[in-house]
Amino acid sequence: MAEPALDSRELTLRLTEVFLSLQGESTRVGLPTVFVRLTGCPLRCRWCDTAYAFEGGAPVSLGEVLDRVAEHEVPVVCVTGGEPLAQRGCLPLLTALCDAGYSVSLETSGALDISAVDPRVSRIMDLKAPGSGEVAANRLANLRLLNRQDELKIVLSDENDYIWARTRIEAEDLGARCTVLLSPVAGELDPALLAEWILRDRLPVRMQLQLHKVIWGNEPGR
């Protein structure tokens, strides 16, 4: 695969981990994927399952990140966090991964501007429902930037969250803009209930469960 420019390789990112797993969410669910988890996040969602990435990590050059990704010999890469866009090196990392020939996705909270993300990247963006405790952090202008290669994920804790999500989806015709994914908070919202609401309302969304948790539970690095 092609090598990025030297100056890009010398950029430093704060990295929590690089690991190989199955993609547990999005339309890429089940695909062997190399995950690059960057450190740090300005949000504190109530049900966050990666709080270990809020702090710590280690400074690593972009070039070393690329080398560690290449070791896994898998063509699909997901850059995640924390909130990866909180690091200035995230954008050049995404571009370098695309230049190297990988199929790249970005998991982002939606609280930060996504407009500068390389257009070859599939942006998997959260929209924070009220139950998350971070609804005020939503950068709603991002919704207008989403396109058919992007995906919008909304995690729901109860029926109030669902009604809020349904209203937003219908008001802005989000299902016509990109794939919309609804997920229940594990242990709080019965997946069968969410499925019933989606079917009742004929909502143009895809329901998803977290495959990696079905297989491995809450084990870090999965």
Question: What's this, in brief?
Answer:
With 222 residues, this protein is of the alpha/beta class.
Features:
7 helices, globular, 222 residues, alpha/beta, 9 strands, TIM Barrel, 9-stranded mixed β-sheet
Characterization of the model:
The chain has 7 helices and 9 strands. The chain has a single domain, classed as Aldolase class I (TIM Barrel, Alpha-Beta Barrel), CATH 3.20.20. The two termini are 26 Å apart. A 9-stranded mixed sheet has the order 3-1-2-4-5-6-7-8-9. It is an alpha/beta fold and 222 residues long. The radius of gyration is 17 Å and the shape is globular.
CATH domain class name: Alpha Beta
Biggest β-sheet description: 9 strands, mixed
Name the poorly predicted regions.
none
Number of helical runs? 7
Distance between the termini: 26 Å
Task: Please name the CATH architecture.
Answer: Alpha-Beta Barrel
* Annotation, overall tally of beta strands: 9
Quaternary organization: single chain
* CATH topology name: TIM Barrel
Order of helices and strands: HEEEHEHEEEHHEHEH
Give the strand order of the largest sheet, numbering strands 1, 2, ... along the chain: 3-1-2-4-5-6-7-8-9
Mean pLDDT: 93
Tally the structural domains: 1
Helix content: 25-40%
From the alpha-carbon coordinates, what is the Rg to the nearest angstrom? 17 Å
Shape summary: globular
Proportion of residues in extended strands: 15-25%
Judged by helices, strands and strand pairing, the structural class is: alpha/beta
CATH superfamily: Aldolase class I
